[in-house]
Amino acid sequence: METMNIVCFGFGQVAKNFIKKLNNNGVSFKLTTTSRERSDIRIFENTNYESFQLTEKSFDKNFIKKLENADYILLSIAPINGVDVVIKNFKNHFKLNKIKWMTYLSATSVYGDHSGKWVSEKSETSPTSSNGISRLKAEKAWIELSGEHNLPIQIFRLSGIYSNQNNILKRLKLGKAKIVNKKNHFFSRVHVEDIANVLCNSLNNFKKNEIYNISDDMPAAASEVAMYGAKLLGIKMPKTIEISEIESEMLKNFYKDSKKVSNKKMKEFFNYELKHSTYIEGLNYIYNNTI
Q1: Which of 88, 86, 136, 145 is nearest to 111 (CA)?
Q2: Phi and psi of 17, rounded to 5°?
Q3: Angle (deg, nearest 10), helices 192-202 and 13-24
Q4: Residue 97 pLDDT > 80, yes or no?
């Protein structure tokens, strides 16, 4: 495979795991990223890469040349104050003859509340949170831009992400986990490694303008996951609080919505078997390998 020119808008945990996976698979690539921090040459997984500053107010103009040479683009920047800064600043710099693959990382918050029922990519999108509203607006903007310029873009709607570094076990050990009293609250999650695996699979199995839910096999109440984590650690469950006691706006929004996210389309199209098929396998792996 020829050398890939990859641009990652944002370089958080999903993008880093994607690049790590490519590295481990021996893929040849040149990497360019954006960051809120000043432009610089950096190292990740023994790979030198260029990072260019991009904020809601400005960006490093030297980044444009790198973008116009990109053939693989991962878009993982969440809307800022309801605005997609990538479309705002760069919509006229995506060249069709160069780009082979684009993925926009959205979120399952676009579905809103479905009273604990299953949702698929064909389900109604009625977001209740500002994050979900902004995400859906951005999705529509990318699909519209794709239509205008015939861009090869796909959208991944990610469920709640956990990883070996950020997970309920860590929060339980630090005493930061909270159990909220909310009946019939179902939530889907996915390990970041599975997201990276599906991203890699999609490089060779791609269909433009498609939307996929990226989720594990078993939606569950947050209390159920915390209970299992506490059992693994051999500690007591944290105390239960009422929704009215929640201080975090993000956490309040989380408990507004109850839904079970179907991953059927993802698994069938990418012929993918999850490494961490439920929170049980995921937490067991983290407990046995990183705790």
Answers
A1: 136
A2: -70, -35
A3: 60
A4: no
